[in-house]
Amino acid sequence: MDIEVGEELNRDLFGKDFKWGVSTAAYQIEGAHDADGKGSSIWDIYTERKKKILNGHHGKIACDFYNRYKEDISLLKDLNIPNLRLSTSWSRIMPSGTGPINHKGIDFYNRIIDTSLENGIEPWLTLYHWDLPHALEQKGGWTNRDIISWFAEYTEICAKHFGDRVKHWMVMNEPMVFTGAGYFLGVHAPGRTGANNFLPAVHHTVLSISEGGRILKDLLPAAEIGTTFSCSFIQPYTNRPKDVNAANRIDALLNRMFIEPILGMGYPENDLSFLKKISKYMRPGDEDKMAFDFDFIGVQNYTREIVKNSYLTPYVQASLVKAKDRGVPYTSMGWEVYPESIYEMIRKFNEYKNIKKIYITENGAAFPDHLIDGKVNDTQRTKYIQENLKQVLRARNEGMSAEGYFVWTLTDNFEWSEGYHPRFGLVHVDFETQQRTIKSSGHWYSDFLSGQNDQTKSDLNLEKSNLISSNASRS
Ligand code: BGC
Q1: Gap from CA of 332 to ligand 1 centroid (Å)
Q2: I want to staple 87 with a disulfide (CB 3.0 to 4.6 A). Which of 129, 214, 373, 466 is the partner?
Q3: Atom 12 of ligand 1 has which residue's CA nearest to it?
Q4: Pairing relation of β-strands 168-172 and 224-236?
Q5: Domain for residue 1, yes or no?
Q6: Atom of ligand 1 nearest to the CA of 424
């Protein structure tokens, strides 16, 4: 769909209760990896392993948010961004994962929460954004069923210390990514591989998500409790039954494997028979324990995937056809730019009748940014966000739930196995000096949020002409 840049997009169209924000995650921004009693997380350990992370990058310093949080929160205020999604680092709060609390860690998150609120910014907390305490990984991490009680202990501590001020909670971030990349493919921490790690990790994660939801709801009945999922719009490479079936299997794996048991529907094993092996890790009563009625679900979408049958790929017999091999536009992550994907995912999640409410808790893009004369003119990112927002609006106008939108992310940061190379921020970071520079996308978001649409319109028309000329010079 070709949507004109600069036209019809206006904050008011989303309604006054729509939540606008940015999303961040502890390990990607905080740095201060061993400050003030913090324990090691699996990412502190994994990034030290040779050749695991592009260019040997790590999160020891990252954006130094631990020391610069005041500056970054006042940047949010300057940008008119009213909601900040962030995660707590489990090993900063409980260095060994269970047992003694590190009060300096609690103090740090109290400072962030208080500073945000003083600046009129609502903090949204995610309890787990992939940085498991290393001490727990040494006991088997997510493959050990005891993790359900370790996670419950940590959840309770966070609820008790932060629940008086934090009104929006997310139990976990993208379970499919951290179990798939971390326990099956071995390309994320802790670097485990194979079905014998992946399947128990999946099951214990599902049980921990629902248990975390129950604990938060019990302790904080007035708070809004959710959890977030990654998802991609999946389409078959051809209409041949083999490709269509392959696409269904990948859809079950990437989009349905976590949400469906949580909604009380069980694992989608009829569409992905390999999931039948999870029964080995099930105990009596688990079917019920897996389900929890969340107040909201965070949908996180970046792209679509085209899938074809592949006999050579174990377990799923399917492979992804890369965007660059399809001749379509893609980001620095190699992900296709396909805004309709977010609409399709909102629709898919709206079709589950037990989901009460949906927020888009992440969406954004990495492009090669250039800091020139103190400016980053990232028109591609602005356009990406605008076109995705138009799809969110389209879903809302058709009566679907999509009650908020959080850009990934505020500042450029540590992009997991890709290190610092892909830049997703609305704000550029010079990682040598920690200098922040608001990109043109950040200025656009700020103007959009403050309702300065006339200004926006003329800026965008200018950007549009830049885009046209850069496209013309490429062809
Ligand atoms: C994750 C973020 C990540 C972003 C871009 C999401 O999968 O929640 O941590 O940086 O996507 O890859």
Answers
A1: 13
A2: 129
A3: 415
A4: parallel
A5: no
A6: 5
Cα 461 to ligand 1 centroid, rounded to whole Å? 30
Question: Based on the number of CB atoms within 10 Å of its own CB, is 391 exposed (0-12), middle (13-18) or buried (19 or more)?
Answer: buried
Residues 338-363 as b or e (16 or more Cβ within 10 Å = b): bbebbbbbbebbbeeeebeebbbbbb
Is 174 part of any domain? Answer: yes
Element at 216 (helix H, strand E): helix 195-219
Residues with CB under 6 A from ligand 1: 25, 28, 173-174, 177, 230, 300, 362, 408, 415, 424
- Range of the structural domain that residue 81 is part of: 11-471
Cis peptide preceding 193, ω within 30 of 0: no
Residue 441: phi and psi, rounded to 5, are: -65, -40
DSSP per-residue string spanning 55-74: GG--SSSTT-HHHHHHHHHH
The predicted-structure confidence for 400-451, as pLDDT tens digits, reads as follows 999 999 999 999 999 999 999 999 999 999 999 999 999 999 999 999 999 9
Task: Report the nearest atom of ligand 1 relative to the CA of 230.
Answer: 7
Q: pTM score, two decimals?
A: 0.94
In terms of Cβ atoms closer than 10 Å to its own Cβ (0-12, 13-18, 19+), residue 95 is buried
Q: Do the domain assignments include residue 5? A: no
